[in-house]
Amino acid sequence: MALPVLSGRRVVKALQRAGFTIVGRKGSHIRMRKVSDRVYVAIIPDHREIAPGTLRSILRQAGLTRGEFLSLLEK
User: What is the tens place of the pLDDT at every residue in 32-43?
Assistant: First the structure.
């Protein structure tokens, strides 16, 4: 199952639904953090389109599977 082409803002909104909060910004990159059993930090470029490889890297940083992320987009 391929990941859709998304904007950085759409990815940020989905991660916020997963419990992440914005903790910083440097240039066009947004830093998000979630504390649960461990600390997750994800860096999201605020671009119109995020490359598929970059999105996969964001999901790894966030500790989310493709399915979990796709379900966050549908909410």
Answer: 999 999 999 999
Nearest to 7 by CA among 41, 55, 53: 55
Whether residue 8 contacts residue 47, with contact meaning beta carbons closer than 8 Å, is answered with yes
48-65: pLDDT as tens digits:
999 999 999 999 999 999
- Retrieve residue 35's tokens: 């504390």
Q: Homologous superfamily of 8-74 in CATH?
A: Hypothetical protein. (3.30.920.30)
Cα angle 28-13-73, degrees, rounded to a multiple of 5: 125
Of 10, 5, 8, give the one whose Cα is nearest residue 52.
Answer: 5
Residue 75 pLDDT exceeds 80 = no
Q: How far apart are CA 44 and CA 55, in angstroms?
A: 8
